[in-house]
Each structure stands twice: as structure tokens, then as C-alpha cells.
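User: For documentation purposes, I need each entry recorded in a consistent format: the amino acid sequence on its own, followed directly by the corresponding C-alpha cells. There are two entries in this batch. Please keep commentary to a minimum and don't merge the entries.

Assistant: Recorded as requested. Entry 1:
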Amino acid sequence: MEPQPVSAEQIQAQMRVVRRDFRDSVKGVVTNANQMFDWKSYVRSFPWISIAVAGVLGYLAVPRSLKVIAHDRENLEKFLKEHNLAVAIPQTPPRRPAPTMLGSLLQIAGTAALRIGMAYATKLGSQLIASRFQPEEPAPSPGRHPSAGNGSHRQRTQSKPSNP
């Protein structure tokens, strides 16, 4: 028996069915992948296990408390002798005398004078900068007064005939 020849219309119909099934399959895979990586869906589905996992992670994230061992002088000397260690005790720097009232007043006055001086210097500096960047006014031409103008303001005088 020979297989019957398949027409082009039948092949096109089969391809449409395959494409539709493939599209549905891809949508299902994407939906499942999104659900698999959505941690909120796990919390909704397994709330008690989620609480337990969060507790374990919190316990592991918090650092352990330090164990403080109080050493007395005898144990420290014994330890140093066993390990042939020497300890150099640093000298403490000399203490500064407590500030006096006069010293405090001088410090306050010095700070105030410094602030006043800085304010004055800032004001002078800003005036200097402003004067450097102001546009200059044009100088009047020599021999003419700046308000003289171009002469167009002069009135013409008409001579009236005199009556005898």
C-alpha cells in the first residue's frame, strides 16, 4: 500500500494546529517559571515552613556574642612566661591642666574676632568681584556736556516783522 499524497491545504492546517499548541505550551512554561521563582507564592502555600526558614536565616545572620574572658594578673604573667612574650606598657601622656575662666574667655573672644574678620573679608571680596564685573559706562566726548545731546532739541526762532 502506498501512502496517500497530502495536499498543501492539509499541511497548512496541521501547521496551524502545531503553532497554536506550541504557543499554548510556551505560555504554560512561562507561567510555571514565574510561579517557581515567585517567593510570595511559597509563603502563601507554605506559611509555617516559611516562618521556620526565616527564623533560621535570621539566626545565622546575627553574629554570635563575643566571649569575654576576665584575666587576672597571675594568669597573664603565667601566659607571658609560657610563650616567652614581653609586654611594653605605654607611658600615658601628661595631663593638660583644666582650662581656667580667663582662658575660656580668651578663646570665646578669639573665636568671635575670627568670625567678624571672616565676615568683613567676605564682604570686601564680594564688593571687589562685583566692581570688576560691572559694565563700564561710556565716557563723554571732550568739549561736550553729556546732557547736550545732538542738537535736535533746539527750537527754531521765527523773526516776527516789527510794526512801525
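Entry 2:
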Amino acid sequence: MVLSIKFVKKLVKQSLGLLAGINPLFAVITPLHIYKSIPSLLSNQKRNVMQKITPFLWFNTEAEEAANFYTSIFKNSKILNIARYSEAGSKAAHRPKGSVMTVAFQIEGQTFTAINGGPVFKFTEAVSFVVNCANQEEINFYWEKLSEGGDPKSQQCGWLKDKYGLSWQIVPAALGELMSDPEKSERVMSKVLQMKKIDLNALQKA
């Protein structure tokens, strides 16, 4: 359970009230030190919360390259660890011993794992990752970066494929609200269907 600062402060205040009845100094000295430490304690708590579900991405041999590519684009991103094929693993998977097997990485705080599993499986549009953008500047940035080297023919309605074949939806965060407006939804949808990269201003004016 992740606790809020407000809840923790309330709990601390109640506890200090009891302690002050024993020694009045607790009511003066202790709160300042405790309150200052609460944000740090809660920050550590959030970092230690395990992510329950992790997307697992199958590549041929490009897992490490792809992980570096994605972490170079998104903020709050990093490579977490790299595992390599052991002798037993290399025989089972028919991959070179010592070569990269999996790469765990984070983009925007979300953990992913990439594996070099060979050419058996390919990405399809059946699975895509949505990037919610605050404004047109963000839409332009992520569209340009992620579409680099990808297939232009796959670009439609805010969707694109990157150079590894993975599909992304680069959309404004306000799209859901625009699409759910009974007075505008039909016009908004009509505009979206004519676009490759989303033009937020055009949708807002629809």
C-alpha cells in the first residue's frame, strides 16, 4: 500500500500527541525532524513498489540496440540490466554463448524487457504502445523520433511503426475527451481518419 503525505502527517501528529503527554519536549523538537523526512521516506516507498506487469518484447538480435534507442527518446529512462546467454541457454536457443539474451530497461518509469530470441516471431499492429502527448510539440517530437527508419506506409491516424516493427500511437492526451463529446465526436473522427500524424489544433477546431 502506498501512503500519502497527508495520511502520514496525520498519523505522526496523533502519535506525537500521545508522546507529548509523557514529555512536552516531544511536541517541540520531534515534529520538525519527522516532517522533513516524510517526503524522502514516501519517495523510497514508491521506488520499491514492484511493477506487476512488464511488457516483454521479442527481437531477433537487436534487443540492446532497441533498448538504447527507446531510452534515448523518452525521459526518466535507463537501462536496468543485461543478461547474456550461458552455455546451456545458447544451446537451447541456438544463440551465441555470451551474446545478449535479455535487456531490462525503463522508459518514462515503465519497465520493459527485450529478448534476442531469433527471427521466429515478429511484431504486429495487434499490440501497440500509446504515447499520450500534452501538446503538438510533444506529438511532433515523438513522431519524428520513433518513425525514423520505420515504414511510412504504416503511418495512419496517429499510428506508426518504428524501425524494429513495433507499433506506437502518438496521440494527444485530450483525444479521449474530444472523441467522447457528442457534439464533436463525429467531426473529430472524420479529421483523424484523414491524418497520418495527429494535428491537435485541427481536432480542437472540428
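Summary note for entry 2:
Residues 25-30 have pLDDT under 50 and may be disordered.
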